[in-house]
Design brief:
With about 240 residues, this protein is an alpha+beta fold. The protein is about 60% helix and about 10% strand. A four-stranded antiparallel beta sheet has the order 2-3-1-4, sandwiched between helices. Helix 3 packs antiparallel against helix 4, helix 7 packs antiparallel against helix 10 and helix 8 packs antiparallel against helix 9. The longest helix has 23 residues.
Length: about 240
């Protein structure tokens, strides 16, 4: 999160920087590479500029090969030299991390229900333990009324049920909670353990009505290994 804010500040700073580039060079620069050219001429934050541009190009779908060719053209125009290893590495790394982040975002969501996957929930729980905050979080578990009897040969019908339950869950847990499908017919929400958690769970229970056979709270264990075991148990067992 802090790194994302840093890059946002860099983008603002780059956009506010007064251009020191001659007009004829500006016209020849590849799109979006003016901030790199300006950084090279000013000898200021060149590596940061390469990283930010690499990420922005990846978001636009520009290939790494094209990005590196444009980087070389930009550095040659601005400084009459080839890019250094550090400049090339920064742009490549920014591009790669942005691309991997996009692919991860695709892989962690069930396309039928829009719920995140169990693997994504496992990683979110692991991050809680990395921050040493298990006592401040809890799991809210919601069972579909037909859990254990969901027809696996009719995924669209099952997905419709889970999508509806997921929508109810998101309406109650609408902040930055992780809402995932775990196992067959079960939703698990990773959320903050606040004083109002019980009231939110009661509200969710009323909203889902007969669509769910149970809604309850599970506390996170003291160790990450125990939390992984708990998640596996939730994926396998009925309440």
């Amino acid at each position: 999160m802090a790194e994302s804010k840093r890059r946002s500040r860099l983008r603002i700073a780059f956009s506010a920087r007064r251009s020191a580039l001659p007009a004829d060079i500006v016209e020849m620069l590849p799109p979006m590479f003016n901030v790199i050219a300006e950084a090279v001429i000013a000898d200021d934050a060149v590596i940061d500029a390469c990283d930010v541009v690499g990420r922005d190009l990846a978001a636009l779908g520009v290939s790494l090969d094209e990005a590196l060719r444009d980087l070389r053209a930009t550095i040659q125009l601005a400084a009459r030299r080839d890019p250094s290893f550090d400049e090339t590495h920064a742009l490549s790394l920014g591009w790669s991390e942005a691309t991997l982040g996009y692919l991860h975002g695709l892989s962690c969501v069930d396309p039928l229900t829009g719920l995140t996957t169990q693997a994504h929930l496992r990683e979110a729980i692991a991050s809680v333990y990395r921050d040493d905050l298990p006592g401040s979080h809890a799991l809210v578990v919601l069972d579909s009324a037909d859990r254990g009897a969901v027809d696996l040969t009719a995924p669209v019908s099952s997905a419709r049920t889970m999508t509806l339950l997921g929508q109810h869950s998101r309406s109650v847990f609408s902040r930055d909670e992780t809402i995932s499908q775990v196992g067959n017919g079960r939703i698990v929400v990773l959320c903050d353990r606040t004083e109002g958690l019980g009231e939110r769970v009661a509200l969710l229970r009323r909203m889902v009505g007969d669509s769910a056979s149970g809604v309850w709270i599970e506390g996170l264990p003291t160790s990450e290994g125990s939390a992984a075991f708990l998640l596996d148990e939730l994926a396998r067992t009925t309440h």
